[in-house]
Amino acid sequence: MHLFESLDAILLLALVLLVFARKLNVPYPTLLAAAGLGFAALPFAPMITVDPHLVLALFIAPALLHAAYHTSPRALRRYWFPLLSLAVFAVLVTTVTVALVGVTLGGLPLAAAFALGAIVAPPDAAASEAVLGEVGIPRRGLLLLQGESLLNDATALLLFGLATAFATHSDTSATPWALAAAVPGGIVFGAVTALAYLRIVPLFAGTLGSSLADFAVTFGLWLLAERLHISPVLAVVAFGMIVSQRRPINQPARDRLQSEAVWSAAVLVLNIVAFMLMGLQSRDVLIHLPPTERWPAIGFAAAILTTVLGTRVVWVFLVRFVEGILADRFEPSWLPKPPPWNASLILSWSGMRGLLTLATAFALPQGMPGRDLIVLAAFGVVIGTLVIQGLTLGPLIRRLDLGGEAGLADKIAPARKRLIDVGLAVLPASEGGAADALRFRYGAAGKVTAEADDPQSTSEFDELHLEMIARQRAVLHEMRDGGDIAEDVYRRLQSELDWSEVDARSFSDNVLKAT
Predict the structure, then answer these.
(1) Helix 110-120 vs helix 371-399: angle between axes, to the nearest 10 degrees?
(2) Quick check: 80 pLDDT over 70?
């Protein structure tokens, strides 16, 4: 009961912090990190132990699926070179540099130091997007962060599993060869599960089971992949991306809106709980350390934080330098135009750590050499990046002139205009008050003659409106599949059509009940 009361208190506090984060234009994880430390300092804060085997499935599986749903495969193909440099090589370089610091300054065994590097290497895009989306930087930066966040999670977790197995000698099957087999195995398993799921999920259409099925299949997919010794990370990523791209076009709009709301709330709650656990475990680590070792441990965490920040800045500018040379000398068709240097500066400073770093730190086995030092350093990196970068990223963006690349609103406007024209094209064959009302509603010339108190006219209006929406939805899918619009534009317009469909069906259902 005490644990439940504490959890409810931290959720209520998080609600207040979310309001302040929006008012102050500060990433909400920054305030959550501060709240977690403050909560741990309270005298009634509970002692909580976390099962390492539970942590990754509970925290990472839903977060990965949520990220996969919102990642554009087309953007991954278009920006494959910078994404490869950030999501794979940047993680490898950061892991190696942190491991060197861990061995030399922290006295950690090599495998344990590599585990620390894998824990702190992957940035979390959620915190950066909260600032970047608000101030309106070029969309390339947002797309890179989204793609990096998804793919670097996979890279870091694969390295983490390998390093942990070597450090604890707990899994003799975790060898480089087994890792090489786990990668394609995870992708294939996730893809097969996605295709099977797409055939089954229509059975739950129009029920609460639609959202429940997403959770059940995601957790089951992760757990089964672990039992099969294949990559659960890549299985969930492949599953999420295939399902998001191949969902039936006739999926009920209410199901899609409900699922989006449920998943967003679930990921937020997981973040809140993770930061609360971070504060509690930080307190426990400091209590267990002898007084003479506490300040050296804090100093080691500061050194790891400095290494993480510096490595990303150096690596991003090195990649930008290489991109510039390749573009100037060879002009390869496969390489997109390099971003300006000020945009690279913003990207290099958008390396805040979050949920993945916390979850992997929680998942460290108790027998890991130097576990307390690794956990403290990982939490120090999360808090440090969220405070230092989270509070300075917004002012830095405003100070730099990032140019006039078209933003999301500029991309949405022509696509929305095309959908309106497509919808209105359905109407000429239809005459009467309902058709005129729809023309008026969508900005076309016409006079509203439908009577609001006429159930028959209202029903006709909604039926015709649903016909328009069905045609608009088909064209929207064609625009996305043909590459005319990006994934974020598609999602925004799809949401608008969903709300319009829910509105039309609600009125139509009420009219049928009234008659």
Answers:
(1) 30
(2) yes
90 token code pair: 């940047």
Query: Is 65 in contact with 236 (CB distance < 8 Å)?
Result: yes
For 473, counting Cβ atoms within 10 Å of its Cβ (0-12 exposed, 13-18 middle, 19+ buried), the class is buried
Cα separation, 228 vs 185, in Å, equals: 9
Smallest CA-to-CA distance from 230 within 149, 153, 157 is with 157
pTM confidence score: 0.80
* pLDDT tens digits, one per residue of 11-64: 887 888 888 877 777 777 777 787 777 777 777 677 777 777 788 888 888 888
d(CA 351, CA 390): 9
Cα Rg for the chain, rounded, in angstroms? Answer: 25
Locate tokens 């690349």: which residue? Answer: 405
C-alpha span between 97 and 87 (Å, rounded): 16
Query: How many percent of the chain have pLDDT more than 90?
Result: 17
Q: What is the pLDDT of residues 189-230, one digit of tens each?
A: 999 999 999 888 888 877 777 778 888 899 999 999 988 888
Q: Which of 434, 447, 441 shows the shortest CA–CA distance to 420?
A: 441
The pLDDT assigned to 453 comes to 45
Nearest alpha carbon to residue 32 among 196, 274, 230, 264:
274
Q: Give CA–CA dist 366/448, Å, rounded.
A: 71
List helix spans (H) across 400-454.
408-425, 433-441
Structure tokens at 513: 């009940």
Residue type at 55 in one-letter notation: V
Q: Quick check: 360 and 56 in contact, CB under 8 A? A: yes
C-alpha distances (whole Å) from 150 to each of 83, 260, 313, 443 are: 10, 18, 20, 40
CA atoms of 276 and 461, how far apart (whole Å): 51
Q: How far apart are the first and last CA of the chain?
A: 51
pLDDT in tens, 130-173: 556 555 566 677 777 777 877 888 888 888 988 888 887 765 55
User: Per mean pLDDT, which range of 92-101, 190-199, 239-248, 311-320 is the poorest?
Assistant: 239-248
* Residues written for the chain: 515
Output the pLDDT for position 459: 64
Q: For the chain, how long is the longest CA-to-CA vector? A: 85
Report DSSP state, residue 202: G
Q: For residues 411 and 489, is the Cβ–Cβ distance under 8 A?
A: yes
**Do the beta carbons of residue 297 and residue 380 sit within 8 Å?**
no
